[in-house]
Amino acid sequence: MSKKKVVIALGHRALGTTLPEQYVATKKTAKVLADLVEAGASIVITHSNAPQVGMIHTALNEFSMDREDYTQAPVSVCSAMSQGYIGYDLQNAIRAELLRRGIYKPVCTIITQVMVDPYDDAFAEPTKIIGRLLTKDEAEKEEKNGNFVTEVEGGYRRIVAAPRPQGIIEMDSIQALSDQGHIVIACGGGGIPVLAQGVELKGASAVIEKDYACGRMAELLNADELMILTSVEHVSIGYQTDAETPLETITLEEAKRYIAENQFDPKTVLPKIEAGVSFLEKGSGRRVVITSIDKALDGYLGKTGTIIKES
After folding, report:
1. Separation CA 59–CA 38 (nearest Å)
2. What's the pLDDT tens digit per position in 50-83?
3. Quick one: CA torsion of 292, 296, 301, 305, rounded to 10 degrees?
4. Which of 66, 122, 136, 231 has the fewest CB atoms within 10 Å of its CB?
5. Are strands 41-47 and 4-10 parallel, antiparallel or unpaired?
6. Are strands 192-197 and 107-109 parallel, antiparallel or unpaired?
7. pLDDT at 139
């Protein structure tokens, strides 16, 4: 009997922030993922990368300021680096945990490029903060270089676009490895955003919301389940009001109605719900589970979490 294919999005809590934190966090996360494998899930994983890509971006750009022979690192390159070093810790932790349980499954990380639309409105209205706090002079220099900045408390920060994912360049490789029973880590940090220029792919100055990329990958894999692991056991409506209500099992239509009612924070919860809705609309017999990482197995078994179904 074929296993249930589950595409999993790991949030910040699963990875930590610093290198030492990440090393410890990925070992704990590996135990959660191994539980799902033992329960019968064939898993494909993506993950966030906000602290990591910001750290890499800051470090390389600071280095270039002291060395005239080095240029600043594009955001796309920083994203690729974050995929590699997060994947390195994560795949080793998963492999070791499975071997401790007597399970042999190859685990691999794919440096993944994700196509974006050059005409996406997001490029005209960048919103994602990246890098360290800037002085006014540094902010003006960034603007002269064609970058966007925004004023924040204590100074300025660079901001980049967050376009929606279209195609996934390495999708055939992800599909082939998953079909052969490998555990695949892909689309880390939402993937490296790229634009097509003839046969070439050019990195875009942008970041992609990882929940949208995860949902898109689940659609293209024709997965049975999209699981988004975050910091809360349930998504709520009426958040931080007297009418706050945790959502347990809801239908696709109910999820769409809550979106229309602006029930979800656009920066945190909305991408998760919208990714789930899109995933359900593009197939049948599918399920979405949103829950905390420590409740992942119970969510998979249908015992907790916000579960979205067709009807």
Report:
1. 40
2. 889 888 888 887 777 777 777 778 889 999 999 9
3. 10
4. 66
5. parallel
6. unpaired
7. 84
Q: Which of 210, 179, 171, 161 lies closest to 10, judged by CA? A: 210
- Please give the single-letter amino acid code of residue 18: T
Q: How many residues does the chain have?
A: 311
CA 252 to chain centre: 22
Q: Are the CB atoms for 276 and 255 separated by under 8 Å?
A: yes
Bridge partners (DSSP) listed for residue 97: none
218: enclosing H helix or E strand: helix 210-221
Q: How confident is the model at residue 194 (pLDDT cuts 50, 70, 90)?
A: very high
pLDDT of residue 2: 58
Q: Residue 239 above 70 pLDDT?
A: yes
Token pair 């209205």 is found at: 125
CA distance 291 to 230: 6
Write out pLDDT tens, residues 241-278: 888 999 999 999 999 999 999 999 998 999 999 999 99
SS3 label, residue 2: coil
Work out the pLDDT band at 1, boundaries 50, 70, 90: very low
Tokens 């999209």 correspond to what residue? Answer: 226
- Asked if 237 and 258 count as a contact pair (C-beta separation under 8 A), the reply is yes
The encoded tokens of residue 187 equal: 């689309």
Identity at 245, one-letter amino acid code: T
Residues sharing a CB contact under 8 Å with residue 280, sequence separation 6 or more, in sequence order: 252, 286, 288, 308, 309, 310
> Which amino acid, 32?
V
- Cα–chain-centroid distance for residue 125? 21
Spatial neighbors of 262 by CB under 8 A, at least 6 apart, are none
Model pTM? 0.92
